[in-house]
Amino acid sequence: MPLDQEALASLRRTSGATPTTHRPRGRLRRRWWWLLAAVLLAGALLAWRLVSAPVAVQTVTVELPAGASEGTVLNATGYVVARRLATVSSKVTGRITEVLFEEGATVAEGQVLARLDASTASAEHVVATRSVEAARRSLREIEVRLADAEKTLGRTRSLVERRLLAESALDGAEADVAALRARLAATRAEVGVAEGRLGVSQQVLDDLAIRAPFSGVVISKDAQPGETVSPVSAGGGFTRTGIATIVDMESREIEVDVNEAYINRVSDGQRVEAVLDAYPDWRIPARVIGIVPTADRQKATVRVRIGFEALDPRILPDMGIKVRFLDEPTAAAARAVLTIPEAALLREGDATAVWVVEDGRAARRSIRAGETQDGRVVVLDGLRAGETVIVAPPPRLREGGAVEFKAE
User: Residue 281 pLDDT more than 90?
Assistant: First the structure.
């Protein structure tokens, strides 16, 4: 019986198609695994950024209710100042070739701010380098000659001992060795002098790069390329004595002059409430950090230094500011009258808590709350007047997490 060739061909096609149908499925499965891994990695990175990034929050200061005594013992006016401020100049006189900053730029300690013309200093550095090389070669030559002279001295001494040479030959060989040793010492000193000159020339080159003495913000740009800068005043209006003025923004504080008749009302560590002239509705908690131990004879005032509880970008040097020196309330009075907005309160069953800002980070604190009136809750225990409380805390707020203040 003859075989059906078409049936056999169809069977071969069917059996050969089996492996090919499984390859796409395997590739597709691997692609799905790679896609899932990429999604999980992206999700982990996003979660890490959300957790580590500062949380923007709105805050209020724990305050006394309207009509209650706030314990103000003294009012004063002053200015925001930076304790660390420097006008950066150069160590040497020279012409500016590059200025590498602009006003408002943040700079790091040691960062190059400007460069001076280095053509003369570079040429002197090349000469000093070659002088060192020449001195070292002379030293090597004398070392070789001294070694040869010492060998000659040894041979001459042997011949004299065997009476093959006169004593005068030995005296001449010893004199040659002594002279070369003295020459070697002098040449070593010359090498040291040449290396010292090379170090000086290298320092001159380094001084032509003007660097930031500390980290801060540039508030003034005082020179341009092509101008001459000098560490001392050279007279006239063509020589600059400074390149830039840098302020350490972490050193901001308040300075006020208090009439000497009322200085007895101020003490170290005393609580202060400050209000910037630019933001009259923003009350900033602060504390006295020092009383300058001298009085101004002409004005009859004593200078008082006040530190902010937390720094804020809105606080700028030389801003006008008003301060109120507060009397420390008794514990019973503070517990009785302190209030916070109801939106800041967290309730979990019978327990109540709030989020406070401590050194720029969030901290959860349990409190004992009293009655609520007009949207404010009386705090019976757990808070002190002047502390900063977060209103309507975001869900992703966490213990110890960094926070930044929302602009009101």
Answer: no
